[in-house]
Protein: FAD/NAD(P)-binding domain-containing protein
Organism: Candidatus Wolfebacteria bacterium RIFCSPLOWO2_01_FULL_45_19
Amino acid sequence: MKQIVILGAGFGGLSAAKLLAKKLKNAGLNDKYKITLVDRNDYHTYTPMLYEAATTAKETANYIELRNIATFPMSVALKNSGINFIKNEIVKINIADGVVQLRNETLTCDYLVLALGSETNFFGIPGLEERALTLKTFIDALRLRDTILNAIAENQNARIIIGGGGSTGVELAGEIKMWMPQTRVSIIEASESVLFGFAPKVVRKAEKRLMCLGIEIITSERITSIDEKKVKLASGKDVAYNVFVWGGGTKASKLISELPLKIEEGKRGRVEVAEEMECLVRTPDLTLRSKIYATGDNVCSKAPSVARAAIDHAKIASSNIIADILNEEGRGKFGHKIYKSYDYPYIIPVGGKYAIVKIGPFVISGFFGWIIKGIVELNYLLSILPFWRALKVWLKGIKIFIQNDRLG
Ligand SMILES: Cc1cc2nc3c(=O)[nH]c(=O)nc-3n(C[C@H](O)[C@H](O)[C@H](O)COP(=O)(O)OP(=O)(O)OC[C@H]3O[C@@H](n4cnc5c(N)ncnc54)[C@H](O)[C@@H]3O)c2cc1C
């Protein structure tokens, strides 16, 4: 059997695997091509739920309940799909030979999809990687919750500092403040406003909401180092903290940035792709055994790093892989589809039942924004889980969230 290997089972990888499986089945080729999906976790993480997982009281939800609303077992997401799932760490990708090295296992591939997402970028700031908490995974969310609870147990007025006022910083600050109103929560941002680069109306609404919640916003201040007790700023000021969370940037994993593919210049190290989502090679003489596509956050794209973009990339990549396969099988002459970025709608929840939603030129905020967020979540859950399970998970999430809000 020919091998299609997909690295990473996040939004992009999972969508690519499911779409490819469906298309291969429709083409009657599922016994000639094997799809293998690899991830270090045997679950898929629904990242928009991580803020809530990190800020839910232990009386409201235990570890299992939080896990059930923020992550979904691959066995359920891939049921009856025919996709071979491997839980393992990817340690090296050798694209010249079409081989992927896992811990204690090697995979050969005829087609490869890179969907490894991103990791936290500490920009080499002294002390940051050792001392900062991050929020990228479900385990991070639990660690953050425990650290905040321990800090509050020691000091009722603990100060929580969030480095980076992008969407992660803003959303997390809002949720922490709703959960623990007595804490002092501050955002430190190097640009002149939080959500820098977002639509001005969204920025204004977010700032107003943060101030309303009592969150301190420190802008135009760059963090230069951090020690056990204080954050040092470029202006020379020291800011004491009890809990420090870093949400100041992301980059592609080293596995990607070290590939002999075209990699974007700068600090993010993502792979460059053609409009067909096929990776561009660095040296023209590199003979690739496999065709390599990429989706999601590990791609250098005009699209923002959001789940919807990863899923759209996956749609194009999977269509084009199928076109390549059908052409190879002599089933006709199929052309490639092209990915076009657009003004992606986005939602920024800022504490409690409040979210700012931007759809095209329209900005909706407040409770109605929160309702839209709920509908978008349900829609995604329905796309990866069986109907009743998706509905159950969604309702459970809402119940936990509302109870937590009331407690806060
Ligand atoms: C806290 C948080 C909240 C967010 N909220 C939103 C939101 O509300 N809306 C939105 O659109 N986007 C949101 N995002 C962004 C969104 O999660 C990403 O854009 C999206 O996950 C990108 O999909 P992806 O498939 O590229 O990567 P991911 O979904 O990150 O998937 C990458 C996968 O690769 C696996 N992996 C990586 N390296 C290895 C390795 N070496 N070995 C094995 N497996 C590996 C990881 O385990 C992971 O499962 C949020 C992100 C975070 C962190």
Observations:
- The longest helix spans residues 307-328.
